[in-house]
Amino acid sequence: MDPATLENALEKKCRNHAWLAWILLLTCSPLIFVASHLSSYVFLGGNPSFFCYIPELVETNWTKEQIREISSPGLEKQSCVHYARNYSLLKELDFEEALSYCNKRPKPHVVKCKNYIYEEEVFHETIISEWDLVCDDLPLRSTAQGTVAFGKLFGAVVFGMISDRYGRKRIFIFSCTLLTVVGPSAAFVHSYAMFIILRLLIGVANSGIFETGYTLVMEVHKNKLYFWDTLFLFTSMTAIPNQFLL
């Protein structure tokens, strides 16, 4: 089909605003899931209180606060060290006797935690408690969201060039399919490295959906119909403000 014929056909089709609204609905619908993945970090990266896991004290069935009071210096909400006490001896005592025993003796030196106990009153389970992303590994917490931003940057560059060659529709459908696969998969992986890879792909898919979707809406109608461009952009900014923050 020659460009003139295609232009005339498209002009006639664009007179049907119901068709344009349908195109807008199809391109905007995936943005709901894009927004969900971007805002999920608020819950995934929830930072609960924690302290050192002491196997001997856990066996005593003391409360978490009692274990913290015996083992953690300063009763801090997040403690990366614990007292080097004789916990094998303390576990044979009840809590009051153990506390009295500790108060009558000088405080010992502290050592780094090997494992942790997490408070679950606010956050039941997060990537922090799943992979112990605390203390020395704390930077890995923000990596989970930073990887999505890097994936969006990479996807914007790559999918922009590929969509010019193979078409917006194909890349848009591929991006939606990719997000459908990698999004739920990230919830079931047991490896932090695999989780980061999937978060990267989520970012790539996000750019593929947003960039090609917006361009597709612009290209399917005549230049004078700026209403649909504005509506798409407003919908996108309302659904995923983080697109413009990351």
From TrEMBL:
<dbReference type="InterPro" id="IPR011701">
    <property type="entry name" value="MFS"/>
</dbReference>
<dbReference type="InterPro" id="IPR020846">
    <property type="entry name" value="MFS_dom"/>
</dbReference>
<dbReference type="GO" id="GO:0016020">
    <property type="term" value="C:membrane"/>
</dbReference>
<dbReference type="Pfam" id="PF07690">
    <property type="entry name" value="MFS_1"/>
</dbReference>
<dbReference type="GO" id="GO:0022857">
    <property type="term" value="F:transmembrane transporter activity"/>
</dbReference>
<feature type="transmembrane region" description="Helical">
    <location>
        <begin position="196"/>
        <end position="218"/>
    </location>
</feature>
<keyword id="KW-1133">Transmembrane helix</keyword>
<dbReference type="InterPro" id="IPR036259">
    <property type="entry name" value="MFS_trans_sf"/>
</dbReference>
<feature type="transmembrane region" description="Helical">
    <location>
        <begin position="20"/>
        <end position="44"/>
    </location>
</feature>
<protein>
    <recommendedName>
        <fullName>Major facilitator superfamily (MFS) profile domain-containing protein</fullName>
    </recommendedName>
</protein>
<feature type="transmembrane region" description="Helical">
    <location>
        <begin position="171"/>
        <end position="190"/>
    </location>
</feature>
<keyword id="KW-0472">Membrane</keyword>
<keyword id="KW-0812">Transmembrane</keyword>
<feature type="domain" description="Major facilitator superfamily (MFS) profile">
    <location>
        <begin position="80"/>
        <end position="246"/>
    </location>
</feature>
